[in-house]
Amino acid sequence: MTKFTTGDDDHVGDDYFLDSGDKIRYFLETDAVDKDGSLNREKQKAVNKIGHALHELDPAFRRVTLENERMRSIVRDLKFHHDPVALQSMVITKQQQIGGEVPEHNDSTFLYTDPPSALGFWIALEKCTALNGALSFLPGSHKTTPITKRFVRLGPGKGTGFEPLVSPEEEKAVEEQSKGEYILETCEPGDLVLIHGSVLHKSERNTSPNTRFAYTFHMVESPPYAKYDEKNWLQPTEAMPFSRILPPGEIVAF
Q1: CB contact at 8 A, 178 and 198
Q2: I need a surface site. Which of 5, 145, 174, 176 has the fewest CB within 10 A?
Q3: Percentage with pLDDT > 70 across the chain
Q4: From CA 118, how far away is CA 111, in angstroms rounded?
Q5: What is the pLDDT of residue 176?
Q6: CB of 112 within 8 A of CB of 160?
């Protein structure tokens, strides 16, 4: 298993991670592993997240994601996508005491399409509070914060990194205009949070005695409405292409 890190300078990018798009794999909290690589706590309390094909391979999560008429109704009502596909599903455990901070980011950086079309579906499995790392959002940032970089594969054996889409000066200007007061969103078990691909969001470290489990997956637009970038870290495979949300032949018109 691999430790999961999220910083710009040390984001995970080994083969265990890169090949997980069509598998169910376990990623560890950084603070759950000693310098010699040994776990310093029970393994069930050391996991950071489980991903990234739960929606395809696990019957329970498949029912929620791909076989759920209520989910299809949300897609039709939102009119955000014409023909969405599902990808990158995860259970995020946010372990008690050591659940790592997730810094400010937007999801289209990691699941880039042209034009940007990522939408996150985040379902609380436990109570989410200010103490155990509930999500925070920068209101309106989906309208003011363009995508300035992409998280990409750097090539065989080179892991992952960020590829700029704008000049350093433009990125600095975007960072300045994106400053503001984040709003904490507490949740009850079963609450669904929809996360626009451009909205800035984050979560703090979990220092409480309680876990903060959540299930999340993403939708992106499919061709011809958008092009999924071939440099993205997560790629469809011949054995597991991205699955459509809507029934065959149905397209959302808007």
Answers
A1: no
A2: 176
A3: 95
A4: 7
A5: 85
A6: no
Minimal CA–CA distance to 112: which of 250, 251, 235, 212?
235
CB neighbour list of residue 209: distance below 8 Å, 6 or more residues apart = 96, 97
Q: Are 26 and 47 in contact (CB under 8 A)?
A: yes
Nearest-angstrom CA–CA distance, 26 and 38: 15
Distance between start and end Cα atoms, the chain: 44
Average predicted confidence (pLDDT) for the chain = 93
**How many Å apart are CA 50 and CA 178, to the nearest integer?**
31
Structure tokens at 146: 């363009």
Query: Above 70 in pLDDT, residue 254?
Result: yes
pLDDT score of 177 = 82
Q: Are 127 and 248 in contact (CB under 8 A)?
A: no
Query: What tokens were used for 57?
Result: 């391979």
The answer to whether residues 21 and 53 touch, using CB atoms and an 8 Å cutoff, is yes
For the CA atoms of 69, 236, 142, 178, the dihedral, rounded to the nearest 10 degrees, stands at 150
Phi first, then psi, for residue 54 (nearest 5°) are -60, -40
In angstroms, what CA-CA distances link 80 with 94, 166, 221?
29, 26, 9
Per residue in 3-55, pLDDT (tens digit) is 545 554 545 668 999 999 999 999 999 999 999 989 999 999 999 999 999 99
Sign of the Cα torsion 185, 21, 7, 152 reads negative
Return the structure tokens found at 76. 């039709």
Note if the bond before 59 is cis, omega within 30 degrees: no
The dihedral sign for the CA sequence 90, 93, 98, 104: positive
Distance of CA 109 to the CA centre of its chain: 10
